[in-house]
Amino acid sequence: MTKKDQKLEALYHYFISNGFDHTIEEIAQGIGVTKKTLFNRYENREGMEKSVMDHWHQVLLSRFYNKCQFCNNAIEKIVIFVCEIKLSYHNETQFFTKNFAQKPITISAIFSKTLYEIIQEGIQTKCIDDETAVNIYIPYFFHNIIDYFLLLKPEKQATILQYLIQPVLTSRGVEMMQEIELENLIG
After folding, report:
1. Residue 128 — φ and ψ, nearest 5°?
2. Exposure check for the chain: N or C terminus, fewer CB within 10 A?
3. How far apart (Å, rounded) are the C-alpha atoms in residues 85 and 101?
4. d(CA 127, CA 75)
């Protein structure tokens, strides 16, 4: 890991622990560098926060793709993706809040792209309906995950997730969905 990557990782962990509402001086001190070093690396605070948010996206997606190695189909990938979002909601709250705090919810392009790719895989493997209006479904899906699913008790989350995925499934997809033990995955 390069020094630049180490500093980015340090910023990532600093923001997880302390949030974003700190001065540049506090942030620099918190990661063990000078303010000058921080500004040499990032032009301004916005650039620093964007780099750290991009790093968070990559961390979340890396976890997701590692788990996808064991998935049998696109439906399982959607469930795993939601589980990673849930994990982030609980363990990386500062990033999650910063990313989804705006109303209406703006979905990070990288999250939309990931869900889009999963849906395309599902269409190709005939478990997701090829007439799915993806440009409408993706915002609908994320809105419901962010505003409803994450706020529910775990025992209700499986039902809501099934409700969110079911409308785009083919009959083959419905059979695949029934084989997934949602309660165990979401738990």
Report:
1. -120, 135
2. N
3. 15
4. 8
d(CA 99, CA 142): 12
What are the tens digits of pLDDT across the range 104-149? 556 678 889 999 999 999 999 999 999 999 999 999 998 889 888 8
Nearest 5°: the CA angle 127, 129, 134 is 115
R_g over Cα of the chain: 19
- Angle (nearest 5°) at CA 92 between 89 and 98: 80
Using the structure block, give the residue that is written with the tokens 């923001």: 15
pLDDT at 69 over 70: yes
Q: 83 Cβ partners below 8 Å, 6+ apart?
A: 67, 185, 186
